[in-house]
Amino acid sequence: MRRCISMISTEKTSDRIKWLRMRYIEETPIISIERAKYFTESWLKTENQGLSRGVRVALAMKNVYENMTHYAVSDDRIAGYWTESFMGVPIDIERGVFNTVFNTELERRSIADFRFKSFSSTIAYLIAKRNLIGFIRNMKTTRSAGPQPMNLEIKTMDEREINPYSISSYDKRTLLRELLPL
């Protein structure tokens, strides 16, 4: 990807755009838990109050927007970013889209546990379908064809080389122990 970006002509590009492009290429995105924290805070407060789901979501988002820190640069044409940092990535915990990913990929032990459970259920399925030998044969054939398309290393989000993300140890602990279990 870096090759493709470097091939784009930058002769007529402003210094501001060059600076933004460089930051997007070079910096590691930071996982921000602020949105998740403020949403969850309001969600728990409005529990058992007889409010509709829509009203609870609206109150939770109001709490997010009233309390969340937004990163802003003085020369930006559209003020503000999604989080408290330029490369911040907010967690929309209420949708749950990435909750399993965070539960799985932020710590090595959870990655290993997830892979072990997945492998165990795959083996059990193959045995039940009486296809374990065929699977082993296919794996040998695939390995002989060259490098595998999937990287099965046990590296956390901040350790991996492709699409790394960083998160502070405090935020990671808060996310895993207080926000995601709810």
Describe the structure.
By secondary structure, this protein is mainly α. It folds into two domains: about 1-105 and about 155-180, no CATH class; about 110-155. The chain contains eight helices and two strands. The chain has helices spanning about 1-5, 15-25, 35-45, 55-65, 100-105, 110-130, 130-145, 170-180; strands at about 30, 90. It has a two-stranded parallel ribbon. The radius of gyration is 22 Å and the shape is flat.
For this entry, give a set of tags.
two-stranded parallel ribbon; mainly alpha; 8 helices
Summarize this entry quickly.
By secondary structure, this protein is mainly alpha-helical. It is built from eight helices and two strands; from the N terminus they run ααβααβαααα.
How is this fold's topology laid out?
Blueprint: H1 2-7, H2 15-26, E1 30-32, H3 34-45, H4 53-67, E2 88-90, H5 99-105, H6 108-128, H7 132-144, H8 169-179
Parallel strand pairs: 1-2
Order of helices and strands: HHEHHEHHHH
Gyration radius, rounded: 22 Å
Cross-sheet strand order for the largest sheet = 1-2
Helix content: 40-55%
DSSP summary, beta strand count? 2
Major β-sheet annotation: 2 strands, parallel
Task: Please count the helical segments.
Answer: 8
